[in-house]
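Researcher: Quick one. two chains, 862 residues in total.
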Amino acid sequence: MVQPSIEVRLSATATTTLCSHCGERCEPDEEFCCQGCETVYELLQSSGMGGYYELESTPGVSQKRHSQEDLSYLNDESVIRRLVEFQDNRQTHITFQVPSIHCSSCIWLLEHLPRLNAGIMSSRVDFPNRTVAVRFNHAEVSLADVVRLLRKIGYEPTLSLASEGVGKREQTLPQRRQWMKLGLAAFAFGNVMLFSLPEYFAPELLDDTLRSVFTTLNILLSLPVLLYSASDYITGAWQSLKQRYVTLDVPIALGIIALYAQSVWDVTSGHGPGYFDSFTGLIFFLLTGKAVQSHTYNALSFNRTYEAYFPLAVHRLEQDRLVSGAVAHLKPGDHLFIRNMELVPCDSLLESETCEVDFSFVTGESTPVRKMKGDVIYAGGRIIGTAASLIVTRATSQSYLTRLWNRDSVSEDGSRSVMGIADRISPYFTSVVMVIAAVSTTIWFTIDPAKAPMVLASVLIIACPCALAMAAPFTLSAVRRHLGRHFFYTKNTLVVEQLSRIRTVLFDKTGTLTDASATVRFSGEPLSELEKERIHAVLRNTTHPLGQRFDAWLNVQTRLQADTYLEEKGNGIRAWVEGRDILMGSFSWLSHCGVIGMPAQAPSSSSVIYLAFDGHYRGVAEIRHSVRNGLSPMLQKMRYDGYEMHVVSGDSSREEQAMMAGLPDIASVRFDQSPEDKLTIVQNMKMHTKVAMIGDGLNDGAALRAAHAGIAVTDDIHAFTPASDAILKGNELTKLPAFLGFTKRAMFVIYAAYGLSFAYNVVGLSFAVQGLLTPIISAILMPVSSITIIAFTTGATWLTAKSKGL
Amino acid sequence: MGILIILIGFSLTIAVGFFFAFLWAVKNGQFEDDKTPSIRMLFDSTAPAPDKKPKP
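Model:
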């Protein structure tokens, strides 16, 4: 036993080296962490693209998790038509979603694709959206070749049933229209103000020609603002009135129309210059608020359907031949062949003798499940270990989970209850304005009937809820920005309002409360460094999740190689490393192999790996999920803040249950919940309290959509998350109490801003009801109120965020 | 005062020109991706381009 000590010393002195391509840790004295990275490096160097490594150090994407999916389905004409944006007889345009784009080197490499393949004409990266738009000559390269090239250099595009490339274009159009409306209003506002100022400050300098030129120009400039820029408010008001509901658009539209009508009347009757500057300014400020509010996180998708989760193609068995076919075309009775780590795309029956399936994303079960021939395997499960053949029982769109997901009652219920705060107070606001307008107009009829219409218009003009319409968008958008800085991404401003009212929080367990990584407890004599290296040499070959976790926990590197390696499905691994026989696997298997010194009884937990060296029992590693760091203090804080918390989990494991029971701040823990159960729980709770659901898996999908606020937790922001209102990065979960507290405080900022705008309205109305409103008063009051509201809300939100430590 | 009207004519023409430039920029998609161009402009265009094909 001299050798081991030498070995230990060796591994202790070997410095950790980082892969030149991707920066991941690699085996000692190696330049690359894997073959794939080396290939990419050499490819780029030989094509004169070494510049990739000069922009950023180790910019590459690790090639270890390189997928080997067969791409022949991309030659299928129907699939191509679904994916591409444009195709003529010479070129094809397609936009790929590439989540792994992360730095400037990525952009550089992806925009130089034509150098790697002459058939590609151009490629253009959109960094915020994480997309690459590629144009290629399909006579020279096929779509499959392009995808293969992207994959080869480490930028695997996401190709799923939901063809996203087509939808994007439709999304950008309203956005562009909004920019144009805002630009038009800004342009008109600036110029109209220029022509209006002389009238306010030096009317004596204006002669009749100049005055009429100015007013004519004002009318001409503000007409397109009324017809185009303000059109949303007027049509919005009309729509809401048709549905007998008063949204904020109604008083705004009233104000706009009164303002324009009064101005035109003033000019044509020769009364004065009109309120064109106030009018264009009003529209400009309103549209600014809208633009701020409409900010979206482009790279994230909150509305993913089940289609985005499933792959585009699977392998089918046709007369003992393996063919690749589109998932969309699968029909009951088809034979599937699903390999290690591939998804089962539709509900099917297992045809192979046995297989292991990881349902953690679908049902929340933390450990892989063993299925026997004839068992039903639900869509969304991931096959682990040996490939399995299956018979389709239902098409993807009819599968258990997708049907649950698509239920109408889940997707759209109570759209009225999620109306913004501004729209909710609008009916009261409008009626008060109406009463004031009616009263002052009637009084004026008795005093001076000629002035009454002017007073009516004045009241409507000055009461126009510009400040009111801006308070919420500016505050809530500021809140979203602050939350986004802490990796908490909200779909829109309404979600922020919903979050502020949450009283009850439901947590999913697997992947939400528990970490994706697990802790390992090794019982037995502690492992020496050499033993660890030997185990690592074996385990780095496995794809079994337990084995991988054990391997990650060992945290060693080695130059040792397994001489032979045999993985027996569902049982364990037998391997030879430097003449030592290593056995790892289940209790029954090791006993079956005749290992000496095994413990007397079988384990109570299923997540264990027994270990034997040279036929002698060495120890057992128990892999258990741990709760996320800092979870306990977080729950304590939330209970202190008055939130009621529950855990609903699809898991049925007893150890996990015990772990959850150890968290004293949680009101109830429910295990063994199906996706439907979760949905029912949320719907029942919704009756009497505001519910937030926090989950990560497909099995939470329905509950996430049903809750007042559905928050998807993910460790990789760009990975698949079920449709939700907000996406939260896993390690930021502990900031949840701060997030919720912040949104609550932000609502007070909005109320304060309402108070402020109310004060402005009182001042303005006092002029208006006396018939004293002049263009100059309006021209001062309107911009001043708008700007103070913007400054106040932004500043106050910033202070609130600071006070919450965000 | 006549000169003022001519000047206003000029200034408005220029302003309208800029307004149309803005509309063109929006239609060109310049307001959608405000991040990539800022990175792209820093790339060296002098890097060797071995077999650059002429545009078809």
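DSSP finds 29 helices and 28 strands in chain A.
Researcher: Thanks, that's what I needed.
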